[in-house]
């Protein structure tokens, strides 16, 4: 704010007002779809939006309820009620703050892209399926939360379709789709709500039998009173029960907010402080449960609206929250008249935009492992649960990553002659004569648990002719884990028991430090750790010569 000026404030004021208007229908729709009232959706957008802008690490990020949380929030409410949702959101906020304090903001960005696309597409399909009842006017009250039974109920009740409701939904969709073609500045969702609310009100006055269900019909008159802060009870039993859900909310919030921030940085040329952004998101999620709110994260669509309308500082996000507060206090009676089918159309468009079907289609040209991760994450999100989808998707991605690393890590065996320049860009070749009785093993890649086992198997398969010296060339080993150290220690001890010398060559400083801490230098002998293969071969040849002389 040191260089803030009146011209910047004017830009932020315009952007904040526009974003507040755009956020209104989304906040209401996301609240209803999540299983809470429209009031809760608005309160979340007001409080959460203010906190994200005031304390986050991106100057243009707009926070609030988003479509990504609909599935997880709906399931938590179904299983544990609003009290359980409040506790899970509060714990998710704490997790996000800790992630920021421990500088995990950059780590989150490395979550595999197919996982993100898989569960985003899964969420999109789930959101779409939750809106069919209101879009078609089926009037069903006990709809199963599971995907397959839900569609079974929909298909068996198609005879209950209400044509006026479908008409409202279809026209709303057309308005949302066509509005940007007329003007990019007009928010299609808001235009649909204004037009269809007016039309349905007039139709209801003229033809009462053609009335469609509105927000007021379902939720009653919405209160304009600000919610009183309230607490909730925490116990170890509750914490253990809701921790997986809290972790899912935190991870989903972190991914979505940092993705949104990255997109914003690409447009504005700014640079997000990822860890501060996580802390800001965490603080927002710690506060909103005390006013009855649902989880908050950065919203890409609202953030981009902020940028395109001139917003460049957090003031725009704060103004957006104040605009929503003014609407909440002054215009709630009008919100009672909004048709449910119109909100369903808004969410169907949100689901379409979330689906990223073009990206999904492009990933099908990628390696089969990426396709597998995407499909597994997608199917688990749709059929089972988002928490399970994220956990198993991450596990599958880690397994496939380790497999790729193992496949790319090579272990070569040399004897008699060795080209020092092999595996480098050098055009000068230097051949070293390796004495009979010397075996050279080169590890090309990280020496972690999977590769350690592979190396151990190779060593056992080449033990038919017992050598006098084993050289382990480690110039291309960037790191070594505890399993690699353990296997190396066993190899050295078993070799020494058979009177076989072990020489380590080309050990990188960071790997050398790990080996020193593990006591490998004392076990093998400091003079047996060489910084270059030439010295290692020279030492090995001398040992062979001395051994043969003694014989």
Give the SSE map.
Layout: H1 6-33, H2 38-55, E1 63-64, H3 70-101, H4 105-108, H5 113-130, H6 132-136, H7 147-156, H8 163-182, H9 188-206, H10 215-219, H11 236-268, H12 274-287, E2 297-298, H13 300-308, H14 314-330, H15 332-335, H16 340-355, H17 357-363, H18 368-383, H19 386-408, E3 410-414, E4 417-419, E5 431-433, E6 438-444, H20 449-461, E7 469-476, H21 482-497, E8 501-505, H22 509-517, H23 520-524, E9 529-530, H24 533-550
Parallel strand pairs: 6-7, 7-8, 8-9
Antiparallel strand pairs: 1-2, 3-6, 4-5
Helix pairs in contact: 1-2, 1-13, 1-14, 1-16, 2-12, 2-14, 3-11, 3-12, 5-16, 5-17, 5-18, 8-9, 8-16, 11-12, 11-13, 18-19, 20-21
Q: Work out the count of structural domains.
A: 2
Average pLDDT: 87
The order of strands across the largest sheet is 3-6-7-8-9
Residues in helices, as a percent range: 55-70%
Gyration radius, in Å: 31 Å
Number of strands: 9
| Helix-strand category | alpha/beta
Q: What's the total helix number? A: 24
């Amino acid at each position: 704010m040191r260089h803030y000026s009146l011209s910047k404030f004017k830009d932020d004021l315009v952007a904040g007002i526009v974003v507040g208007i755009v956020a209104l229908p989304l906040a209401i729709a996301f609240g209803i779809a999540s299983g809470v009232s429209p009031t809760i959706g608005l309160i979340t957008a007001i409080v959460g939006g203010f906190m994200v802008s005031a304390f986050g690490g991106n100057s243009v990020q707009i926070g609030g309820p988003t479509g990504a949380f609909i599935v997880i929030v709906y399931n938590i409410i179904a299983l544990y009620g609003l009290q359980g949702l409040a506790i899970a959101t509060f714990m998710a906020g704490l997790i996000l703050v800790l992630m920021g304090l421990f500088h995990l903001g950059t780590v989150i960005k490395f979550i595999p892209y197919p996982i993100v696309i898989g569960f985003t597409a899964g969420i999109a399909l789930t959101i779409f399926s939750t809106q069919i009842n209101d879009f078609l006017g089926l009037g069903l009250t006990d709809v199963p939360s599971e995907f397959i039974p839900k569609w079974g109920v929909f298909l068996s009740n198609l005879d209950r379709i209400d044509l006026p409701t479908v008409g409202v939904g279809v026209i709303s969709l057309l308005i949302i789709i066509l509005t940007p073609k007329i003007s990019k500045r007009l928010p299609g969702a808001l235009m649909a709500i204004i037009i269809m609310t007016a039309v349905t009100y007039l139709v209801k006055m003229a033809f009462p039998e053609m009335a469609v269900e509105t927000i007021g019909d379902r939720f009653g008159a919405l209160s304009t009173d600000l919610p009183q802060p309230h607490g909730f009870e925490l116990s170890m039993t509750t914490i253990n029960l809701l921790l997986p859900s809290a972790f899912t909310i935190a991870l989903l919030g972190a991914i979505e907010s940092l993705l949104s921030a990255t997109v914003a940085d690409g447009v504005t040329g700014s640079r997000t402080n990822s860890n501060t952004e996580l802390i800001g998101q965490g603080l927002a999620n710690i506060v909103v449960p005390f006013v009855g709110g649902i989880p908050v994260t950065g919203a890409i669509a609202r953030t981009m609206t902020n940028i395109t309308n001139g917003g460049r500082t957090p003031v725009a996000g704060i103004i957006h929250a104040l605009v929503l507060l003014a609407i909440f206090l002054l215009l709630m009676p009008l919100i009672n008249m909004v048709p449910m089918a119109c909100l369903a159309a808004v969410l169907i468009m949100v689901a379409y935009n979330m689906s990223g079907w073009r990206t999904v289609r492009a990933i099908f040209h990628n390696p089969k492992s990426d396709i597998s991760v995407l499909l597994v994450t997608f199917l688990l999100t749709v059929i089972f649960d988002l928490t399970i989808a994220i956990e198993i998707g991450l596990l599958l991605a880690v397994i496939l990553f380790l497999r790729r690393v193992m496949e790319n890590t090579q272990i070569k065996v040399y004897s008699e002659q060795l080209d020092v320049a092999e595996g480098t860009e050098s055009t000068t070749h230097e051949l070293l004569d390796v004495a009979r009785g010397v075996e050279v093993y080169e590890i090309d890649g990280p020496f972690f648990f999977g590769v350690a086992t592979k190396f151990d198997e190779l060593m056992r398969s080449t033990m038919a002719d017992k050598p006098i010296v084993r050289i382990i060339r480690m110039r291309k080993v960037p790191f070594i884990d505890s399993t690699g150290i353990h296997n190396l220690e066993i190899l050295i001890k078993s070799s020494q028991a058979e009177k076989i010398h072990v020489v380590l060559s080309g050990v990188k400083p960071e790997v050398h430090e790990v080996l020193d801490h593990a006591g490998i230098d004392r076990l093998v002998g400091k003079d047996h750790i060489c910084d270059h293969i030439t010295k290692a071969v020279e030492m090995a040849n001398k040992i062979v010569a001395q051994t043969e002389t003694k014989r």
